[in-house]
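Could someone model adenosine monophosphate with this protein?
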Amino acid sequence: MTVQLTLFNSKMEVFKTIKSLQQTLSHKVGKSTLGLVPTMGALHEGHLSIVKRAKEENDLVIVSIFVNPTQFDKKEDFVNYPSTMQADLEALEATGCDFVFVPSAEEVYQGNLSADSFDFGGLDKVMEGKFRLDHFDGVATIVKKLFLITRPNKAYFGEKDYQQLMIIKKMVEMESIPVEIVPVGIFREKDGLAMSSRNIRLTAEQRLAAPEIYQTLLKSKMLFENNDLKKVKNFVKNEFVQNKELALEYFEIADSETLNPASEILPESKYRAFIAVFAGQIRLIDNIALN
Ligand code: AMP
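Reply:
Sure, complex below.
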């Protein structure tokens, strides 16, 4: 079934079923290149910039909008995930997106609403994986399904979810899926807050406090140049102790490739700092390259 958009002269096509999507892709893609941008909707400028980039690098672009139940460890986070479908579709159309896939959970999981188990060689055992159990099995399951359904040449993932990006790269390698994974840098609000669909759920006070997350990452990067790891970590912990709006869940400095938490700094290795913070019930993450 093709969903009709209420947009004048729209060339963008929206699909709810795998069958209708694949029928169209099979006769429209041909020798053209296809770029996929997987999203969970509630699109912001960051998402749209990724779509623009995909459009520059591919003949055709498909965006998926699907809030994937199997990657949420907390039901309330899944239930409260924001949805702005009509605005999303209008923004995608204005960005030049060609196809949108908006399946139901039933369509994607076909009665088996569970995640596959993957061995990511430890990439999933730290940071987000440690605090959100089974999260990455859920992510890899849905992304693999989307790759097999759409067969894109390139797929785009934001460095905002850096650990997710590394896990998708690993999954593609393990499963020999012929797709190029393209990393995209982090898009930020003017005050430095990393753009996120969750930001619209912040109260005015939380929104005012939230730029502190990136400010702290910037300071940790400066400290990292001349101080040992313990000093940097203690500094970050202390930054949030007095904060009424933001509670630190974790701060970690890890190897950019293996994601192993650093115990010492090797001059030939690249490191990133990763942070997760709660503003009330809303969980915000961010990260930064340190060297
Ligand atoms: P989401 O809808 O949050 O699952 O995000 C869909 C894709 O957009 C993922 O690859 C995210 O990493 C990416 N993304 C979300 N927010 C940002 C951002 N602020 N900067 C860069 N990429 C982002």
